[in-house]
Specification:
With 269 residues, the chain is an alpha+beta fold. It has eight helices and nine strands. The strands form three sheets. It has a four-stranded antiparallel β-sheet with strand order 6-9-8-7, with helices on one face.
Amino acid sequence: MQKVKPALLRGFDQEYLPQDQLQFNRLIDIIRRNFELYGFLPIETPSAERREVLTSKGGVEKEIYALTRLAEADDDEAATKGALRFDLTVPLARYVAMRERELAFPFRRYQIQRVWRGETPQARKGRFREFYQCDIDIIGREKLSYLAEAEIPSVIYSVFREMAIGEFRIRINNRKVLRGILQEFGVADDKASANGSLKGRMAGNAPMPSVLAGALIGRIGNGAPFAIGNQSLPLPMSGDGPLWLGINDDQVSDNAGALVVRVLVTRGR
């Protein structure tokens, strides 16, 4: 019999000694407890989904691990049509579509399960091919109150505070934040739409469109410091020093046709 050297696959190498596993379990318990304190309900979905479900939004084929068997049977549907989930969002959409009549809306769900993603593993950055995701979502039938979106950072804050991880910062990633800032500075809706719906990635020190920059400078005053890119713009508001608005060029990207802008607002002098 051939001897097999014990080894783990790259990217599938997260396993712990018992004392570390206990610590990991405690962290999961903190997350679960806080999710439930905020009224989120647990669900679990199968590890494998139909391939057409997972690939429905396109562009993710390289991230998906398909199911197969070393000795495949002709009638094995899972081996020919199944694949491992790469996130929990797509299975959630399928879950709600199948069970809509059985659910109460707004549907407040949390899900803590493993996912599998064919990315390049980078252990130092916490990137693996098999890992846990801890998701919360609030799903409405038609319209959903903005209070639901505001509640999510509160849950995150509650979790991190109980974990006692030290100082942390929550970054809001939503184009509506940028649109609201433009409205505050009196930028017309048509100009805000034209400049706030940029497609593609802004690289290097790409300037903000002149119409938008001009509107902001005009609203603040030409004497105020103003910079674009990996710098900040002081907003003349009352309080302990101005509010600083920072929009990083390398954090503006087109995500499946939707603009993603990370806007950081801090108070300083």
